[in-house]
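Q: I have 149 residues here and want to know how they pack in 3D. Can you give me a structure?
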Amino acid sequence: MQEWISTAARLGLAVVWAWAGLAKISDPAVAAQAVRAYRILPEGLVKPVGYGLPFLELALALLLMVGLGVRIVAVISALLLLTFIAGISSAWARGISIDCGCFGGGGAVDSSKTQYLQEILRDCGFLLLALWLVFRPRSKASLDAWLSL
């Protein structure tokens, strides 16, 4: 049963990363704008992070989809999700009104349009999937399982 739960977690997290990456990859300037809105990174890192993040998300999605290096990808996913949670929490704590930009868009919004708690809870749910895979990476229909034969 554990392998089926891990398969569902792996594929669910793959869909999340694919959705996030595809939503941002077509307009990297908007992705960079979303990164800038957090006011955390120095300006010199805003574009590299904004432009590079969709490619990282798509790479994680692909690796999870085929089930290759699941534990390593899960660790990277968990670290990335913790970074997102910290960034959203920081913006909320500092009173910055932004859309997180997690699934495209992003940037400054009216304070009535912020959804920090929902975004943090959503990312905590995704983090649980990643943590499950850190400790239970064996899943059905994966290259990891095929390679270990």
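Q: Anything worth noting?
A: The first strand starts at residue 98 and ends at 99. Residues 18 and 58 are 5 Å apart (CA to CA).
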